[in-house]
Write a structure and sequence with these properties.
This protein has two helices and ten strands, in the order βββαβββββββα. By secondary structure, it is mostly beta strands. It has an eight-stranded antiparallel β-sheet with strand order 1-4-5-10-6-7-8-9, with no helix packed on it. The relative contact order is 0.17.
């Protein structure tokens, strides 16, 4: 079986500050003042801590969904997959990351990268849903190069 790094959720020793105002991504906020609260991100990512794990991504089959190598997945084993959910599964003894997709009574594991092919689940497929991915932690700084290249082209 292929190794995957899983991290079990634990209790946060330190709470992280949380702005109570939302951050506007389309225009500047007229509010100059802000209030601060504290949040335990564990409470934000899952209602069932005993069923929540974290895993690092290896591979590029989900880049179209914004999931890149070395991103951190929050995997919730208490959730039942719905159409379009990103799931972690065990296929022939190995962990895989794909989208759950059901069409015409057939279930597929869909990659979000045109370099990979969909996997149709049949009665002979050895597959088990291990958990649903409701959240990811995306490292913005790791992709600064691509972003600055786009900005350079816009400003020409």
């Amino acid at each position: 079986m292929k190794e995957i790094t899983l991290y079990e959720r634990g209790s946060a020793a330190t709470l992280i500050p949380l702005f109570l105002d939302k951050v506007h991504a389309g225009f500047e906020s007229p509010a100059a003042d802000y209030e601060e609260a504290r949040i335990d991100l564990n409470d934000y990512v899952s209602k069932y801590p005993e069923a929540t794990f974290f895993a690092k991504v290896e591979g590029d089959c989900m880049v179209g969904s914004g999931i890149f190598p070395d991103d951190l997945l929050v995997v919730d084993r208490s959730l039942t997959p719905e159409q379009g959910d990103v799931v972690v599964g065990i296929l022939n003894g190995e962990f895989v990351l794909r989208c759950y997709f059901n069409k015409e009574n057939k279930v597929y594991l869909m990659p979000d990268n045109k370099l990979y092919k969909p996997i149709e689940l049949t009665e002979t497929t050895v597959f088990q849903i291990w958990g649903v991915v409701p959240h990811t932690v995306y490292n913005q700084r790791r992709r600064n190069f691509a972003r600055t290249n786009r900005f350079e082209q816009l400003l020409r």
